[in-house]
């Protein structure tokens, strides 16, 4: 036989020294396996995070610069009148702290998304996706890992900001934990969906410009919305519709031991919507993977 | 012969890998046309093809990075679209790109992979110790991956692909960029696995020294299979495999001829 054989014929295999067999998979595909997989992904993200200490500090420096310099400078210009959850006039520094804490989470969510794009470029995303578990679980694990990191960072910031005499009740720090988790989940989900849409790492600068800055500035993080309303009704409504506003408000109220139901509903709803869309985007049959020719960098 | 006949291999058993009449397009660009490949259990199959032939697309489909649009892919009889978990659980992959976390240690990388397959930590550690021994890198267990040489990290990637005890191993040009000695190590390790553990292997390459005459081989060119058979019998009697390959990929892609 000197010519190629037929398209679908196969070649009889000679007897191997060892009988070919289908080996037993070592892992478990049940609920315990799900948890092991989830734990492994979270663990890896945390290991990577603690290997990059500069990332931790730079994430802290940004809000501290705002608090230390910006807020000090605007202290007298931007007085904040009494509005819930505050029961008295508050200094501008006090007002911006919740917004800055959630800003850390915003940056963190985008950073996780950036690392997903990077993983896709270098190929470690492929390793993740060969896991036998469903994609939603893999994405959820990524999300949980990112939220864990962002909550730790937010509390580290609050610990330093404590020296500014914020008058946050002790119980507020505790009550804010679920709020931070919810805010982190929402911002992480937005980041996940973005990571599926950004094709290359270089495009990330535009994510900064078109996502992070508008979300941050068109929100209640730096100024109460009634002040915006005084200058523009349209802008006010944009801010009201901005999910970041609701993440900030949820945390702001929680820090003072109060619950803001509308913000909570918005944050949870947006989380659900964006996470669902991200799962669709990463679905091997429907999403961007197939249409765009798979993870970036596949030449053939 | 119809595509349906691919399911039953020559041995009568369900083959390790069955790719039947798979086509795939990215928009208007057709990356794969009617590709059928069967890797029998315990066999080493070489997938030969120049750059851009569609090897990576084929690997992406088999690893379910994205679904195939036409045709069927099954691993030990588990169709990827219907039973993806069961199929992927039996599959080990070494990708062309380096995919280890360089900031993590060898063991951390392997434990991460074990977790992706739901292997409890204790069992994973024992398995990893055995695999590091097999690839000859036991002493590097606690070292960061960035301190390893190219050949060593490839060996770790092979160990990683085996952590969950797969029955089918896919390697996408695993020796690219390695020196001769490391290349020989990689080939020897994988061949020993086929011989000693009955592992089935699909090995994409364009380095002919890595292929033995008795290996199964398919030549992929412009998204089509243009030749298949025992590596030693591909091409005319007066040609080596390399010469046959060069001739085949310089011709316009035509489907493989039926056996005479």
Automatic annotation (TrEMBL), chain A:
It is a multi-pass membrane protein. Residues 54-285 form the ABC transmembrane type-2 domain. The chain crosses the membrane at residues 56-74, 94-118, 139-164, 170-194, 206-226, 259-282. Keywords: Cell membrane, Membrane, Transmembrane, Transmembrane helix, Transport. It is found in: Cell inner membrane; Membrane. Belongs to the ABC-2 integral membrane protein family. This is Transport permease protein.
Automatic annotation (TrEMBL), chain B:
GO terms for molecular function: ATP binding. Residues 17-247 form the ABC transporter domain. InterPro entries: AAA+_ATPase, ABC_transporter-like_ATP-bd, ABC_transporter-like_CS, ABC_transporter_ATP-binding, ABC_transprt_ATP-bd_su_PQQ, P-loop_NTPase. It comes from Methylobacterium cerastii. This is Linearmycin resistance ATP-binding protein LnrL. Belongs to the ABC transporter superfamily. PANTHER family: ABC TRANSPORTER ATP-BINDING PROTEIN, ABC TRANSPORTER ATP-BINDING PROTEIN NATA. SUPFAM superfamilies: P-loop containing nucleoside triphosphate hydrolases. Keywords: ATP-binding, Nodulation, Nucleotide-binding, Transport.
């Amino acid at each position: 036989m000197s010519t190629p054989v037929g398209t679908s014929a196969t070649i009889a295999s000679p007897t191997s020294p060892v009988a070919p067999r289908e080996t037993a998979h070592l892992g478990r595909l049940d609920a315990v396996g799900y948890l092991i997989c989830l734990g492994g992904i979270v663990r890896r993200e945390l290991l990577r995070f603690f290997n990059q200490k500069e990332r931790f500090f730079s994430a802290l420096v940004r809000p501290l610069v705002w608090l230390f310099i910006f807020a000090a400078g605007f202290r007298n210009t931007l007085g904040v009148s009494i509005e819930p959850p505050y029961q008295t006039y508050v200094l501008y520094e006090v007002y911006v702290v919740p917004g800055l804490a959630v800003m850390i989470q915003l940056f963190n969510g985008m950073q996780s998304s950036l690392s997903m794009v990077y993983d896709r470029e270098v190929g470690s995303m492929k390793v993740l996706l060969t896991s036998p578990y469903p994609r939603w679980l893999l994405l959820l694990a990524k999300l949980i890992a990112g939220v864990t990191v962002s909550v730790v960072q937010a509390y580290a910031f609050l610990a330093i900001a404590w020296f500014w005499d914020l008058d946050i009740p002790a119980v507020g720090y505790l009550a804010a934990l679920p709020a931070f988790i919810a805010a982190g989940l929402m911002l992480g989900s937005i980041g996940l969906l973005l990571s599926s849409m950004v094709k290359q790492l270089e495009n990330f600068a535009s994510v900064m410009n078109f996502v992070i800055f508008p979300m941050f500035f068109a929100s209640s993080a730096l100024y109460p919305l009634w002040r915006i309303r005084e200058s523009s009704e349209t802008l006010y409504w944009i801010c009201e519709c901005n999910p970041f506003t609701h993440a900030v408000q949820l945390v702001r109220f929680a820090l003072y031991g109060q619950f803001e139901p509308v913000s909570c509903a918005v944050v949870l709803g947006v989380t659900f919507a964006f996470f669902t869309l991200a799962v669709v985007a990463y679905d091997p049959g429907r999403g961007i993977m197939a249409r765009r020719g798979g993870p970036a960098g596949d030449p053939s | 012969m119809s595509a349906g006949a691919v399911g039953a291999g020559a041995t009568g058993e369900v083959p390790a890998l069955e790719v039947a009449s798979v086509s795939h397009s990215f928009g208007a660009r057709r990356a794969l046309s009617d590709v059928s490949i069967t890797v029998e259990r315990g066999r080493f199959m070489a997938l030969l093809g120049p750059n851009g032939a569609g090897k990576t697309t084929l690997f992406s489909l088999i690893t379910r990075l994205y679904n195939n649009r036409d045709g069927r892919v099954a691993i030990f009889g588990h169709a990827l679209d219907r039973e993806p978990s069961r199929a992927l659980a039996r599959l080990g992959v070494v990708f062309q790109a380096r995919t280890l976390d360089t900031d993590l240690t060898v063991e951390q990388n392997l434990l991460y992979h074990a977790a992706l397959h739901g292997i409890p930590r204790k069992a994973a550690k024992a398995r990893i110790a055995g695999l590091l021994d097999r690839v000859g890198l036991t002493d590097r267990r606690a070292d960061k991956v960035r301190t390893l040489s190219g050949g060593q990290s490839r060996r770790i990637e092979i160990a990683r692909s085996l952590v969950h005890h797969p029955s089918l191993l896919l390697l996408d040009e695993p020796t690219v960029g390695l020196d001769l000695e490391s290349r020989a190590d990689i080939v020897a390790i994988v061949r020993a696995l086929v011989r000693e553990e009955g592992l089935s292997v699909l090995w994409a390459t364009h380095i002919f020294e890595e292929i033995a005459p008795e290996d199964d081989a398919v030549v992929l060119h412009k998204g089509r299979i243009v030749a298949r058979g025992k590596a030693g019998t591909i091409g005319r009697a007066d040609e080596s495999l390399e010469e046959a390959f060069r001739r085949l990929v310089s011709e316009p892609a035509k489907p493989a001829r039926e056996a005479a």
